[in-house]
Amino acid sequence: MTNKTLLGTAAALCGLIMIAATPASADLLDDIMKAKKIRVSTDLAIPPDGMMDANMKPTGSDVEVAQLLAKDWGLELEFIQTTGATRIPNVMTGKADVIISTLSVTPDRAKVIDFSKRYATLESDVGCLKSMNVKDWPDLKGKTVGVTRGTTQDTTLTNMKDKEFNIARYEDDATDVTAAVSGQIDCIGTSLPIIAQIGKKNPERIFEAKIPITTFDLAIGVKKGEPKLLEKLNAWVDQNVKNGKLNAIYKKFHGVELPPDMRG
Amino acid sequence: MSIQLDFPAVLERWPSLLGGAVLTLELACFATVLGALIGTLAAIGRGSRSPLIAGACKIYVEAIRNTPLLVQIFLVYFGLASLGLKLSAFTVAVAALTINVGAYTAEIMRAGFEAIPRGQIEAAEGLALSRLQIYWHIILLPAIEKVYPALTSQFVLLMLASSVCSQISAEELTAVANYIQSDTYRAFETYIIVAVLYVILSLVMRAGFWGLGLVLFPRRRRLGTPL
C-alpha cells in the first residue's frame, strides 16, 4: 500500500532526476509563503489515512495533519491527489510542495528526497485468519503470505533468510486484500489498518495481526535542497508532537496511540 | 538533457529474470497445447449438427473474445477461491490463458475448416476413405496447414499477454520486472531488458513453430512451399 512503488514511480524517478531540465528555483519556502498556499501530495484512496467522506470532502489522518500544518502556517491548502507510486515524483517535478501520505522513511527514498522528523508511525504485521495458531515465523511453515509487490513488507519478507513460507505478490493493495477476502491466501503481510479491513469485508474471514514485521517512521517528504523548508517543518512536527495534536489525530483515525515518546 | 542508464544494476539480478522468462515460456507452452486442443474441439463443435453443441461452442467463443483477459483471470482466480477451490496462481494462470486462447484458436480453425473445398471431401468419399480418415487427412491437417501462420502469431500473442498474470502473483517475467524496478528504482533499464527478453522469447517460440511445421506438414518439408 503506502510504501508501494509501481511502474510509474521509478520511471519518473530515473527519468526526471537525470533530466535536469528545470533550473533550480530560489527557495521553496519563500515561494510557498509568497503564494500563501501549500500544495500537499496525498493519496486520498487509502483509508484511514486519506479518503473521501460522504460529502466527497477529503478526510483521514494525513488529511488532518496537512490541514493542521496549513492552519498553523496561515496558508491555503491544496491537495494534489496522488497514488503510492506518484507521491515522490510529484514533489520532484514541482507539482506539489510536500508529501504527507503515509510516506515511510527508507534509505532508498532518502537518496532522492529529504524527510522531516517523523509525525507518525506505521506498523506492519503478518496477519492471519484469527483461528490460525501462528505465534512466530516457524509457525508459518508451508503457508503462503500475500503482499503487495515492491512494498517494504514485500522487501522485508523476501530478504528474510531461511524462511519456510511462500510469498504471493499482488500488484496493489486491493488485489492483495481481495485474495485474503476470497480465500486465496490465509496470511497477509501488510499494515495494521488493512489487516483489520479484511474482516469487515468478509465477516467469515476475520484476520488479526500475528507477527510484527516492521514499524516505520512516517515523515513529510520534501524535495532535496530545501533546508529552510525542512527546518520549519521539523520545528512544526516537534511542536505538535509536544502538544499532543499529532497523537490525537492518529488516535482518532487508527484507534491506537502513537509510540509513548510521541504522545506529547 | 542526459539520461544515465545503469544496466549492470538490473542485469546482476539475472537469475530472477531468467526464472521469470522460464515461467513465461512454461505458461505459454501449457496454454498453447491445451488451448489448441480446446480451440480445435470448439471449432469442430461449432460445425456440429446438434444445435445444443453448436450453440454452446458459439457462446464460449463469443463470451471469451468479447471480454478482457485480465477480467477472465480475476474471475477464475477469485471466483474459484470464493467457491472454496484453492488453486495455485500458476494453475489459474494456465487455465485462464487456455480458456482465452482456446476461443481465438476456435475462430482461426473454423476459418481453416471453411477453406477446405467441398470437392476435396467429395473426392475422398469417392475414393472410399472412412469418415475418420477423411476428417484427419482431408479436413483437419490441411485446415491446420492453411491457418498455421495465423495460429503461430496467436500463440506468440498469448505468450506476450501472459504478462498480465503478474496481477495474480504468478512470478512470470513482467512480475519479476515489476519487483526489480520497485527495488532498484531503475525502471527504464529494467523494462528495456525485459522487452529484449520478450523479443527473444518470441523468436524462440517462432523457431519452435517453424520446426513443428516441418514435422507436421510433409509438403513444407519436402517442397518448402506453403499450401
Which terms summarize this structure?
heterodimer; A: 264 residues; alpha/beta; D-Maltodextrin-Binding Protein, domain 2; 2 domains; eight-stranded mixed beta sheet; two-stranded antiparallel ribbon; 36% helix; disordered N terminus; B: 227 residues; mainly alpha; MetI-like fold; 10 helices; flat
Describe this protein's structure:
The complex is a heterodimer of chains A (264) and B (227). Chain A is an alpha/beta fold. Chain A has two domains: 24-122 and 216-262, D-Maltodextrin-Binding Protein, domain 2 (3-Layer(aba) Sandwich); 123-215, D-Maltodextrin-Binding Protein, domain 2 (3-Layer(aba) Sandwich), CATH 3.40.190.10. Chain A is built from ten helices and ten strands. Chain A has an eight-stranded mixed beta sheet, sandwiched between helices. Chain A has a two-stranded antiparallel sheet with strand order 2-3. In chain A, helix 7 crosses helix 8. The two termini of chain A are 28 Å apart. Chain B has one domain (7-223): MetI-like (MetI-like fold, Orthogonal Bundle), CATH 1.10.3720. Chain B has helices spanning 7-11, 14-46, 51-65, 69-82, 89-114, 118-126, 131-161, 173-184, 187-216, 218-223. Chain B starts with 6 loop residues before the first helix and ends with a helix. The interface between A and B is medium-sized, with 31 and 30 residues.
